[in-house]
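Is guanosine-5'-monophosphate placement plausible here? Inputs below.
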Amino acid sequence: LQLLHELEKGLAREQFMLHYQPIVDMASGRTVKAEALLRWEHPLHGVLSPGEFIPAAEESGLIVALGDWVFREATRQLAEWRHLAAPAFELSVNVSPRQLHASEHAVQDWLDWLQQLALRSDSLTVEITEGVLLDGDQATGAKMLALQGAGLKVALDDFGTGYSSLSYLKRFPIDFLKIDRSFVSKLPQSQEDRVLCSAIIAMAHQLGIEVVAEGVETREQHIFLRGQGCDYGQGYWYGRPMNARSLGERLQAEA
Ligand code: G
Ligand code: G
Ligand code: MN
Ligand code: NA
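Reply from A.M.:
I modeled the complex. Tokens:
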């Protein structure tokens, strides 16, 4: 209850901010996208990460307002970067199950907002985790399809860690899958993880899905994954999550 009150106050007082982690095109090495990651600059407790407050926001329903804020802030920033530095740059935002389920008009509201910003809907990717549809929730699935129908892209986050990764690929026209970092961290030494990553990449490509490797921390991991044809990399090797200004400078330097 206390936390819920704090969350409401934090939203009203603009204590939330987005950090952006670069996503690099493996073949060219260029920063072609970023994932927006939510932070709460709490006046007493310092910077809080999503794991510390998203569950409470979901339970209370405040996730809808918070998610709308994330969407608007990320797209406003994206429009600025596309205008100033990188006309083809793209962003990913994370969307939680509860948010999709509860947001009555979100899809149309978001499309209107993109139009106001003169942003193409395919410049934005919505990242969902497998949990989203595990509920067997028809309404949530329908919302995802509506987002895709409107031209937004969908990424399946943390791929390989849930029960239903594969059936997901069958039921939804996924654009990207993000290999969970638990499959990447022991590359290239682990023979099992080499096999799993190669197989995931090959399977995705045959289904017309592009692949993002998460948690790439070393040059050797980058080289191995690039050699397997992985499309994009994200992780400390390319860059940590950073504030908007730092990412803007990076985009300008690469332009
Ligand atoms: O950056 P960090 O390691 O703290 O992120 C942890 C997790 O929080 C990520 O896996 C991500 O899925 C989730 N997350 C980050 N930003 C958001 C957001 O804006 N909304 C939701 N629902 N989840 C987020
Ligand atoms: O679940 P999701 O992929 O949305 O979470 C992204 C989270 O992973 C972010 O909180 C980010 O801080 C973290 N992260 C990003 N790159 C790396 C990395 O190279 N290594 C590790 N250990 N964590 C990372
Ligand atoms: Mn994510
Ligand atoms: Na992930």
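Short version: Strands lie at 16-25, 31-42, 46-48, 90-94, 124-129, 153-159, 176-179, 210-213, 232-234.
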